[in-house]
Amino acid sequence: MMARMYTISCVNLKGGVGKSTITVNLAACLHREHRRVLLVDADGQGTARTWAAAAGEADVPPVVAMDQRNIARDLPRVAAGFDFVVVDSPARLGKEARGAMLASSLSLLPVVPGAADVWALRETLDVLEEARGLVPDLAARIVLNQADHTKMGALVASKLGELGVPLMRSTLGHRVAYRESMLAGRGVVEYAPGSAAAVEFGALYHEVLQLLGVASDDRSSLERAAAEGRAS
Question: Which CATH number applies to 6-231?
């Protein structure tokens, strides 16, 4: 049994940046290597719950709905017995996003390339600073999602590096496999092994575990799945 529970939240006050995609795929990767993981859907759109329903009889992690405003208070009770909790937080709730951050071992802040998205991220960072007024060592990382290799992508990455919150080394591309796997109720690593999406998300997943100080038992199986996918 693990000594503590780790909570990972995905937070951005702007919608359309991939919070739900990152959240369900993190939960799917943890579940894949037999971690006791709870997926918390705090987004009124219910994307994580819809994803789990789409899975049908497939083996996916349990999902519960929670009110974002009460997460910091209720999560220890709801998540008792789990080693990991992954929280999909809603957009457009302003300072209420602070509750998910305060309950987290690590907050991931996804952003997509574009001036408006970088500017909008500043509001989320303001909420992070307020949360750090209560928990000074609160860990957070920016995740560049739907990244490309254009000059614009490099410029956005440079600007994100100036915001005072570290940028994850691993980035996620704009790939059809993410949308297809969401519709199928599967994680992309399982749905499309060997794909560019599976490889890059596997890298992000292992980087998250490293940040939490947790060893992964599944790197070899992810690598085998990638090799099998490339060979098929």
Answer: 3.40.50.300
